Each structure stands twice: as C-alpha cells, then as structure tokens.
Amino acid sequence: MKWQPASFIPLGFEMNRAMFKDQERQLKPLLDQYEKEEFDRSIAYAMEYNSSLKINVWSDGYKETILYKKSISIPCISPRNIDK
C-alpha cells in the first residue's frame, strides 16, 4: 500500500478549514442608541422610497450580509385594456 500514509491529507484539510473559520469569529457588537436610530432610519427610507437595502447581521460569531431588493412591477398596458 504505497499511498496509504497520504490518506490523512483530507482530514488535515478539514481541520485547517475549521481552524481558520474559527479565527474569523467576532464578538457580538454592542449598538448604542445612535446606531439603533440610524438602523431604523435606513429601513424606513428603503421602505418609503422602494430602494434596496444591505444589512450586516451578526449570527453566532459571524457576520452575514442580507441584500434586500425591492422591485416595483408595473403592469403592461395595451390598447385593448384601455376603455374608450
């Protein structure tokens, strides 16, 4: 069995991946009153003006980015739909 000693390599890669992922963990951010108000303002603005919104969410030590795109669908108007 010539290649048997190299069988540990996939396990080593998996362990390295887990180690590097743990290094990316962050503490839960503490938001002050101003940051909370700014967060609320940006959500209200996006809702009022139908714009997209990018939110970074902390989840179990990692940041996740959520992109909310609000699209407005305008119905197609054909001459047959217009009452004369």
UniProtKB/TrEMBL annotation:
One Pfam family hit: YolD
Name this protein carries in UniProt: YolD-like family protein
Species in which this protein is naturally found: Neobacillus driksii
